[in-house]
Amino acid sequence: MRQETASKFFIKNKESPYTGVLLEGEYFGETKIDPQHPLYKEFEAKNYLKFKDALKLAKDSQIQDSLNPKALFAKDLLIEVADKLIDAGLFKEDEREKIKFYSALNTPLDFLHGVDAFLDIDGVTITLDATKNTQKGEHKADFIIKEFLEPGIPEEEKEFFEKLENLAIQIVNWYKEIKETKAKK
Questions:
Q1: pLDDT per residue over 16-66, tens digit each?
Q2: Parent domain of 29
Q3: Which residues contact 69 (CB under 8 A, 6 or more apart)?
Q4: Is 2 inside a domain boundary?
Q5: pLDDT of residue 185
């Protein structure tokens, strides 16, 4: 059950100094894994972690607040998704703490399961992957961002927020679909 179409962000300057890894860090924020974490030790021993364990390790490896991320894209996306969920009547204004953003960069969730970041919406996980490879067809995440707006370019701001709003709408629709599917079971 994956989202087949993804929102597109783009770089107008194709000669951007940003590599995919640098853009991911700018967009999603960094993580820091504790080498003593039991799940990291399990990963080192087996060279693998199940998705749910990799998700837990990523959550435990945050260096930014999941309710108020430092990375501007993460913060803007979190606010936009929360606003859309509230506008849709799915959450109340005082329930924003149920909507969280996590980076998974440089964690087993990233390199084993293809997830760069994820939202936790009241226990529902929605995953994101970013790549500068516009030819990348296969992906494991719910949403893939193939093109980026370069941070800090004022003339691209309107377009950035239009694309961000579109992504937020897609995420909210995906969340509703997941909740409806679970309710039918």
A1: 444 455 668 888 999 999 999 999 999 999 999 999 999 999 999 999 999
A2: 20-184
A3: 29, 75, 78, 101, 103
A4: no
A5: 78
- With b for 16 or more beta-carbon neighbours within 10 A and e for fewer, the 98-107 pattern comes to bbbbbbbbbb
- Does pLDDT of 152 surpass 70? no
Ramachandran area for residue 48 (φ above 0: left; ψ -120 to 50: alpha; else beta): beta
Alpha helices in the chain (DSSP H): 20-28, 38-46, 51-60, 72-87, 108-113, 157-184
- Cα distances (Å, whole numbers) of residue 13 to 10, 18, 34, 150, 163: 9, 10, 37, 8, 17
- Examine residue 8 and state whether it is found in any structural domain, yes or no: no
Q: Give how far the C-alpha of residue 94 lies from the chain's centroid of Cα atoms, to the nearest Å.
A: 23
Please determine, for residue 182, whether its predicted confidence score (pLDDT) is greater than 80.
Answer: yes
Residue 177: phi and psi, rounded to 5, are: -65, -45
Residue 6 domain-assigned? no
The pTM of the whole model exceeds 0.70: yes
Whether the predicted pLDDT of 15 surpasses 90 = no
In a domain, 10, yes or no: no
Counting the structural domains of the chain, the total is 1
Are 11 and 120 contacting, i.e. CB atoms less than 8 angstroms apart? no
Would you say the C-alpha torsion 31, 69, 85, 60 has a positive or negative sign?
Answer: positive
